[in-house]
Write a structure and sequence with these properties.
The protein has about 160 residues and is mainly α. The chain has 2 domains: about 100 residues, Helicase, Ruva Protein, domain 3; about 35 residues. Helix content is about 60%, strand content about 0%. It is built from 5 helices and no strands. The relative contact order is 0.07.
Length: about 160
Amino acid sequence: MGAIPGAVPRKVRAGLVGWLLLMAGLLASGLAAAVDPVELEDPALQARYRALSHELRCMQCQNQSIADSPVGLAGDLRREVRELLLQGKSDAEIRAWMRERYGDFILFRPVFSWRTAWLWLAPAALLLLGIGIAVRIVRQRAALAGGPDIDDETPA
């Protein structure tokens, strides 16, 4: 019997399935590595732990929270947050402790102070600047549109 036209040979199909399984396994292992499996006994503490770990930035990844980062430093920071929670520290005390140790950069939402004022005020200033530029452009174009047409003028 001859081969069916357009059919994928059995060896190629087996290779594709193996490759897809390998990629799925690699993807799943990466996702599992970023998950923090530790559960605290008290549900209220667990909720606070999750909220805090999503508010703190991984100092190595810099664009992920410590909850989402798989690196060792994030694991150390998560452990530190757990220990501080178990010691009875409040969320504000834990944030303050992390700020003292790592600076304002560790907080995704830094507190308003004279050092971080530009973070909070720059977006508003840039928005006002953009509105001012847009108003000026619109006024200039309106003045040009309302002026005399060159084609309508007759030469003297």
